[in-house]
Every structure is written in structure tokens, then in C-alpha cells.
Amino acid sequence: MSTFPGKPFRFASMLFALTALVTSTGYAQQPATTQDSAIIQGTVCDARNLSLSDATVSLETQSQPSRKLETHTDSQGRYRFEAVPAGTYTLRARSSGHLEPAQESVAVRANEIRSIVLRLPSMSPSASAKDSSALFEFSDEPKFTVAGVTDPTNLGGHGSDVVLRTKEALAKDTASLKQGQPEPTPAPARDLPDSAEDHSRLADAAEREGRSLDAVREYQRAAELDPSEPHLFAWGAELLLHRAYEPAIEVFTNARDRYPNSVRILLGLSVATYSRGSTEPASRMFLEACDLNPKDPTPYLFLGRLQESEKIDPLGWAERLKRFATLHPENALAHYYYAVSLEKQANRQNSAAIEAELNRAIELDPRLGNAFLRLGVLFFERKEFPQAVAAFKKAIEFTPFPDEAHYRLAQLYRQTGEVEKARAEIEEFNRVSQQKTEAAERERHGIQQFVYTLK
After folding, report:
1. What pairing do the DSSP bridges indicate for beta strands 22-23 and 68-72?
2. Fewest CB within 10 angstroms: 215, 225, 348, 428, which?
3. Tens-place pLDDT, residues 3-41
């Protein structure tokens, strides 16, 4: 599994001069002096979400297109413009071998950071000669075929068991976004004998009955008949749920091109990319999902769950989770995830802020076991042992499988010389860990894994 860099990326800054044409390479830009300005950053990738190095990225004001800034992506496809005054801009990317440039209109406010992925389609001369109207039809044959299902008894995966569980949880969360959508209005069979809605209903029924292979084929047929956002999302989510990561990426990428403002489409693509093992590109897409509609809590919840399985706090995550807590002060998980982000910054001065956020989360949800666990860790580090014991016991009470709370409590008892209590907690840790593993295996085997072939 690829990992996040251990240190934040170091970018040189740049003065955004609206009165001059500036061309630069990589991150070597002029020092910024503008106050209250924005940052526009992101990556350039191809249709398969592979980063493109040395792609040319330009930023121009819409009022004066002739005046623009240019930069080139680095070896990982990243670009960055700093000290950008508030306003509306056109962001473009181009690269050799890609006949169509990627383009997006961007409006930024003072002190805002925007993360934008520019996706360049690979086009051959013959493809560019096609009628442009065909681009809006689901005319491309999928490059895969779902051939069957298997019981994932020997399921492999990138990374540790914690990461594997996170992938499975994120996939389930993605699939749950299909729910809560209004049911299509039933129509007489004589009017719509083979409609997308008919196939979608058949797919839902097949999935409820455990006929996953029938379900994915019905979702596919619905999307082919009507490549709307709900039908494409349902198809991609079904593939993702059953661990067909490459096909899910293909479907979500296709859907992303058609519906660039769909938060759940981008989340599906992010989860599929992460599940495949491409952690860093997935991280950037999660950030972009948070920026699509900053008031939507859904992408922050995905980002927070992913953060729990990672050892560090990548650039931009803390900022998004702070925004989550600010925009949704009534959401317990918003405060909890922001506290975890602060904790990962390894700044002792954050101790009071972490405690405040955790206490606020517990105030909003008195049964939030994970918040009690992190509070116990904080008290333990400050050698406030009675408070730590109380917090760990609350974590044990309110967490389904509190293996870590038992382990932490055993550490505390060892340090305070309470050997028998420490031994008892280790025994509980081993027992609960075994239960947790067995429950995860049962759930894992309950979801059939698609067997697919790439054309």
C-alpha cells in the first residue's frame, strides 16, 4: 500500500501579478507578499486516475484571458498557485498525448484553499473525429466483464488488517449513499417495457436477496439505458461493495466526467482508488470532495474515518476537519475527527484544544466510545491516571469491540504497579481481539467478491 509522505510538502511561494505574464516550472515561483489571498492546488491525471508529470497548468482571469500564470506538474502530478487574489479564474491543463485540454472555472475567496483535480482524457485522432454529441451518451463499451462471484475466504489486500477493515467500512458507507433516494415512480409495463427504472428495481431486489451477480448486471443495464447520476452511482457502488476495484474506478471515472459536481460520485471514485492501494491520489480526491460543497457533512465523515486508519495527518486534512466542526457544531463526529487530527500533529500545545473538542463530542453524544478512548490516551500522556482510567472504562462500556481500550488500560496499570489488574486487562484484550477478528471475518465472507476480467 502506498503511504502518505511523512512530512508536509514544501512549496515555494509566488507573487500573483495580474499585470504581467509569468511562466514558471514546477514549484519554483516568486515569493508571495499578498495578504488575504487564496491558494489553488491539485493534481493532473489521465482518464485512469494516473498522475501526469510535466503537464502544463495555466491560471487566467476570466476578465483578461491574455494575462495568465503557468506552471508544470511535478513528478507526482501536483501543481500549486499561491497568493491568488479573490476572484473567478479559468484553470486549464494540457499534456502531450492528450488532445483535449482539461478546463475548469474556479471562484476563490480570500484565505481559501481549493484542491482541484484536472482530468485529461486520452484521445486518438480517430476518436477526436467522432461526433461530439456521442460524448454525452454511454457509448463506450466497459473495459471489463463481471464473470462471476466467489467467497473471499482468502481475501488479500494492501496493508494491515486495520486498513483492510477501513476499506470495507468505506465501501459499505459508499453503498449506503444509494439509500434514501426517492423511488422512481412506477409506470405501466406497456409504457416502459425495458426502462432503466425497471432494471434498477430488479437490481435492488436481487441485492436484497443475495443475488449479487444478477444485481450488478441489472445496475449496468440501467446505466446503459440511462447514464444518469443515480444509475451510474448505483452501478459503481455495487462493484465497489463486492471488491471489483478496477471496474468501479472505470465506472466512477466515466460518471465523474459527466457529473463533475456530484459529491457521492467523487467519493465513490476516492474510495475505489484508496481500496486499490493508491492512497495518495485518493487523499487528494477526498479533499476535493470536501470542497465541492463545503456544507455537505458526508465527505468529511469519509475523510474522518480514513484518517483513523492512517498514522499521520496529510496536508489539508486538519483544515477540512476544522471546517467540518465549524460548519456543523452540533455534530459529535465533527468534533471527534477534528480532535484526532489535532492529536496527529504531535504538538503538545494542542493538548487543551484536543481535550475541548473531545469533551464537546462527548457532550453531544455521551455514548461515543472512540472519543472516550482518545480522551483516556490524552490523560495517560499527561499522567493524569485516575481520569485516564475513568475514560478508558467509559470507552470499554460504549465500544462494540473495545480491544484498544483494554490494551491501553493494561499499560496504565503496569505503569502504576497494579500487576494483577494489568494481567486481567490483557486477558480481556486477547478475548475481545479474537471476537473482533471473528466478527470481521463473518461479515467479510457474507459479501461475495466479484470475479472480473479486463477486456
Report:
1. parallel
2. 348
3. 333 333 332 232 233 222 233 333 333 333 445 688 888
Phi, psi (rounded to 5 degrees) for 178: -70, -30
Q: 35-50 burial, b if ≥16 CB within 10 A, otherwise e?
A: eebbbbbbbbbbbebe
Whether 381 contacts 346, CB under 8 Å: no
**Burial readout 136-172 (b: 16 or more C-beta within 10 A, e: otherwise):** eebeeebebebeebeebeeeebeeeeebbbbbbbbbe
Looking up cell 515555494, which residue turns up?
12
CA angle (321, 327, 331) in 5-degree steps:
75
Q: Which residues on adjacent β-strands are paired with residue 106?
A: 89
CA pair distance 51, 333, nearest whole angstrom:
32
> Which distant-in-sequence residues (6+ apart) come within 8 Å of 4 by Cβ?
279, 280, 283, 310, 312, 314
pLDDT digits (tens, 9 = 90+) for 166-180: 888 888 888 888 864
Determine contact, residues 239/273, Cβ cutoff 8 Å: no
Q: Which of 272, 353, 369, 365 is nearest to 318 (CA)?
A: 353
276 with 249: CB under 8 angstroms? yes
pTM: 0.67
| Residues comprising the chain, all counted | 455
The CA–CA distances, whole Å, from 121 to 82, 252, 391 equal: 27, 14, 52
Residue type, 286: F
